[in-house]
Amino acid sequence: MSIIQNKCLIFVVLVLVSCSSRNDNCLSLNDSICSKWQADSNGCLQYRYRLVKKGIINKKTLVGVDFKCIRKKFGDPNASKINNEGAIYIYYITCKVIPHFTFHNRRIPTRVDTEAYLFLVTVNKNDVVTHTNFIIP
Question: What Cα–Cα distance (Å) separates residue 17 from each residue in 10, 14, 87, 127?
């Protein structure tokens, strides 16, 4: 093999390794964790918060991962905003709920979610995560 062929082969191997390691970050979460995350879809069960607090969900390890993989593991985001550069996906980590209350001896069955901790996932036009951040009110 010539030197150019060797360099091309090395380049292809490096690209394949980097692509596979990108997906491994997302895929290394076990199904039990992902099922519980998805079951806590609005963050009110506090399971998402505990995962983040324990460092099991680490925002830095998701940079470079294809968002399709994250969506497969975490489920659909609670909200999204598409822009010219890509998109921002939002997952609720917690919710603060105003519980049912009594007014003039009548129980008011209203729940209002306010000031949720958020997990923002920013992706480029290729749907690859470029940035993640937690928003804490």
Answer: 11, 5, 26, 19
Q: pLDDT by residue (tens digit) across 18-63? A: 344 444 445 577 889 999 999 998 888 899 999 888 888 777 888 9
Q: Please give the model's pTM, rounded to 2 decimal places.
A: 0.68
List the one residue out of 61, 77, 68, 80 whose CA is nearest residue 22.
61
